[in-house]
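S1.2 Input.
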Amino acid sequence: MKHYLAVLILMCGANALAVDALSPDEQRMADWIDAHSDGAIALLRETVDIPSGSMNLDGVRAVARVMQRELDSVGLETVWIDMSAETNRAGHLFGRKNGEGKKFVLIGHLDTVFESDDGIKPFARNGDIATGHGVYDMKAGNVIIVYALRALQEIGALESIPMVVAYTGDEEKSGRPLSISRKHLVEAGVWADIALGFEEAMYFDDTDWATIARRSSSRWTLTVTGRQSHSSNIFNEETGAGAIFEAARILDAFYDEVRGEEHLTFNAGNIQGGTEVSYDSAASRGSVFGKSNVVPRTVIVNGGIRTISEDQLKRAQAAMLAIVAANHPHTSATIEFREGYPPMAPTEGNIALQRVLSEINVALGRKAMPALDPGKRGAADISFVAPYTDALAGLGGIGGGGHTPDEFLELSSLPLAIKRAAILIYRLSKQEASN
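S1.3 Output.
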């Protein structure tokens, strides 16, 4: 991985990129986007004003109807994929069109993290700053997709580009099993040559950052048992170490022996231990009973793990399993790894997409876009398609406060992001024609 990062620095350095100016057609798109920025803001307002937490199924469907109207208007064949029976989620909106050349999947999501009235705020504007639930994550990204397609349509380029637009309805709280809730998205990734994700852009240190990698996100549960006895008997041949000491040994060994590999992190989020333990996984809440004069018989630990690749995940899981199996006397332990979001590994194909995006950013009068440290982003839907196609994420708007009631969007970043997306799709589609 360190060798990869050294190569990445050489390939992605700001001085390593040869930059072309915008072509006449690209300039036409940029001018059209500037002239229609008010329409993009109006569409953003319309969708932000519809509460659509992942479990607000009617709200997610309402946002889908708005976006379906928009995709229909640019000639995509749209379909609503109902997921209520299979996963207790609203479903997904997909738009498709045929064409020749490189095939694109453009990814957004209709839902937000806000399920209660506490976090729900309507669209509001104060100068260049817009606020409201989902304005940044990621209703702005959904609008960017639509207006990028409109700009391509304006110059007559859209009709020839094959694509799928995938608006999932449960990105913030995914339905299980993922084999069902992400089936259609994975199929689109297998079909596509290029995947573009439109969650929020990263801008800090006076620099735009390109997302070529995102780490996985999955969960684990450690269950430890020991022999219950009077505490005066602990550590003897009949009683052994007890469940809590065994859990402490395992967690300490995780820290000492598994920790340290670049881009690998794992966390113990909660722990319950004692004579009697109950845990509600859906609510992430538990209760315990135990006394200082009783050797505990049960410990349950719930945690998460993030990796940059499937290989790294497998290595970490194997190391954790080996530690769990080396039990103290009269204890036993098991660890269960649950399904989660896969990693979007940094690949040469992703780097090639980043270089094109960086050239476009410079042509638009901004700085080159280096690759973002994958540790600075969480998991996302694009990770489900990244194993099958070249992928680039973070093509949304600039703002902050994601997953909080204080999220905001810089409205001036909306036309910028639309230009980047439209020109990126246009240039990548032309690459196929030259091969």
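S1.4 Remarks. Residues 1-19 have pLDDT under 50 and may be disordered.
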